[in-house]
Amino acid sequence: MKGAITILLFTISSYSFAQKAFEFEYYYGKTKNFEIKLSLANGYILGSEIIKTDLKTSRKIKYIPNDNPDRKSQSLMFLPDSTDRTVRRRKRDNIILYNMKDDYQVLPDKIRGVYGIDLGTFKFTLYKQKTTH
To answer: Global pTM?
Structure first.
């Protein structure tokens, strides 16, 4: 019995000491109408997320990656978080980032993308934020 409890405690503690497989890097960009903050999960691109803030209303919407990144063109589409019921459903509402990789050896200083909503398309550039220690 004592051995079973020891094994159980060891198994539980090994999960708590597990190291994550990616690191977050942060990017920021701004246009006339909105700002975009990217949390880039370097090592697991599908763990990334974008927060888009409307500058007029201060409303924030979370975007998560589509399950199918386009490896050929290296573009990654983000869609509004489907669990957020406050987001108005539109014909088109997405953010596409270009030249994306799952794992970077050297992170880019800037990432280009487009925000598409209904019939409008807005280009933007995200800039890598300086890390402070």
So the answer is: 0.77
